[in-house]
Amino acid sequence: MRYDVVMIGAGPGGYVGAIRMAQLGFKVALIEEGTVGGVCLNWGCIPTKALYSATKLVAKAKAAGTMGIEFAAPRIDISQLSAWKQGVVAKLVDGIKVLLKSNGVTLIKARARLDGSGRVALSTGESIESERVVLATGSSPAEIHGFSFSHPGIWSSTEALALTDVPEKLLVIGAGVIGLELATIYNRLGSAVTVIEMMPDILPGIDLDRRNLAVVKRALTSQRIAVHVDTGASSVETADDGVVVHTQGEKSFEASRALVAVGRRPNSEELGLETVGIEPDRRDFIPVNENLQTDAPGVYAIGDLIGGPMLAHKASAEAVKLAAFFAGERVPLDYDMIPQAIFTDPEVACVGLSEKRAKEAGYEVVAGRFPYAALGKAQGMGETEGFFQVVAEAKSGRLLGAQIVGVEASDLISEAAIAVQNGLSLSVIADAIHPHPTLPEGLKEAAENALGRAIHTANR
Fold first, then answer.
1. Phi, psi of 63 (to 5 degrees)
2. How far is CA 80 from CA 87, 88, 186, 219, in A?
3. Do residues 157 and 257 make contact, with C-beta atoms less than 8 angstroms apart?
C-alpha cells in the first residue's frame, strides 16, 4: 500500500498532523502500536489534570471552614476515582478515533520502523510506502542510575497516574513540572510528601522570575510538602515498609514509594533510523531543520523526539506547521511564544519572556504586577495566593511576556498568549473593558500598573 504521508505515532503531534494533512488532501496513514492519544492523553496530561481537578475538591472542602461551611472528612474511594479518570481518558480516545475516521485517515495498529528510503516496515509483517514519513513517537519517563522502574518500590509517572494505591509516605525525586504536579495530587490524597531536587531551586528550566517562584515555594510549605533542593538521589535500598533513598549529601529519606520524576527521554530507539542515515544527538533527540526535516530526504520528525519544550501543544503546533509545509505554505513557529501551564496549587502559567530574560536579551523593559488578593473575585473564591505579571518593551509598550501564579492561571494565560504572539501593546490590554468581578481583570490591572496608571494597586 502506498500513501502520501505516513505518520508514526498517534500522540498529540501524530493524530493532529494526520487529520490536518488529510484535510489538505493528502492520503494519510497513522501507525500506532498502543492507544491513540499517546502519552499525553493516556498516561500524562489528561489523567494528571483529571486527578488534579478531583483532588482540588478535597482541598476546597478543607478550606471551607473559614467561610462557615463544614464538611465531614472526605472518604476517597481510590478504585472509583481511578475508574472515573480512565473514563475521562476513554471518552477522549473514542473521540479521536471518530475524528480520524471522519477525516479519512487510515489508522493502522502496529509497531513501525523505517526500512530504507520511502519504506516503513510493520510488526504485522507488512510493508508500506510513502513519499513522506513523519516520526512522532514522543518520549518516556527517564530513569536515573540505580533507580530502575522495575524496582517494586519505585514509580515512574506512569505508575503514579495508574492510581493503584496512596502511599503513606511518598518521596518525589525531581522538583520539575511532573514531580510537583504529582506531589500536589498525592498530598491532597493523604500522602506525606517529600520532594528532593538536585538543582539549586524548584522548577529548573522554567523561565520564572524569582518573586513568582517564591509564591510557589511558600504554597508548597503551607501545604506541608517538604522540599529539599541541592539534594541529588544517589542510591536506594529496600526496607520492610518501602524504600530508603540516600542522597549525595549523605541524607537519607524513608518512603513507602519513591517517584522518579527527573524528566523524559525521546523514543528514538528501534525506529530504523540507521536505514536512512539519521544519527540522533548525544541526548537521543533527532536533529531537524526549520522545516522539521531530518538529514534523510522525505523523513520528518516532530514533538518530543526533536527536543525543545516537551509539551503536547508544541507537538500539535509543529504538526500543523508541517502539514502547511507539505501543502506549499510556510507557517512560522516561535518557540519563545509557546505558553506553558503547571498544575501545582496555585497554578503557574507563563508565555514569552520573563523580566530577567528580557533584560538579558537587551530589552529596556517595564513590568507590571497585580496581586490576586486585590481581586474581588479571588477574595470571594477564597483563592488570594499569587500574582499577575506583565513584561513589556519600555519604549513601544509591546508585550514581551506574562506570568501568572494563582488559581486558574492555566486558563487565564491564553489572553496574554494572544497578545504576546501578536505583538500587542500594554495599552491594548489595559484599555479593553473586562467584566467585573472576574479573574481576568488581574491581567488588565497588571498592564495598567506597568503603564503607571493603576487604580486598584500602588503604581510602580
1. -85, -10
2. 10, 12, 16, 29
3. no
Each residue's pLDDT tens digit, 279-297:
999 999 999 999 999 999 9
Phi and psi for 202 in degrees, rounded to 5?
-75, 165
What is the Rg, in whole angstroms, of the alpha carbon atoms belonging to the chain? 23
Q: Is there a catalytic annotation at residue 436?
A: yes
Q: Domain of 315?
A: 2-141+265-335
- Cα distance between residue 264 and residue 315, in whole Å: 15
Give the DSSP H/E element, type plus range, for residue 441: helix 441-450
Q: Helix, strand or coil for residue 238?
A: strand
Instruction: Give the Cα separation of 185 and 369 in Å (integer).
Output: 29
Of 192, 141, 218, 137, give the one whose Cα is nearest residue 387. 218
| Catalytic member of 228, 246, 434, 436 | 436
The DSSP secondary-structure symbol of 329 reads -
φ/ψ region of 126 (left if φ > 0, alpha if ψ in -120 to 50, else beta) reads: beta
Statement to judge: residues 131 and 27 lie in one domain? yes
pTM above 0.85, yes or no: yes
Instruction: Based on the fold, state whether residues 174 and 306 are members of the same structural domain.
Output: no
Contact 217, 202 (CB under 8 A): yes
Measure the CA–CA gap between 243 and 170, rounded to whole angstroms: 10
Q: Is residue 146 part of a domain?
A: no
Look-up of cell digits 529539599: 228
pLDDT band at 459 (very low <50, low <70, confident <90, very high): confident
Please write the tens of the pLDDT for every residue from 242-262: 999 999 878 999 999 999 999
Instruction: With respect to residue 200, please indicate whether it lies within any of the assigned structural domains.
Output: yes
Instruction: Give the residue from 262, 284, 317 where a domain finishes.
Output: 262
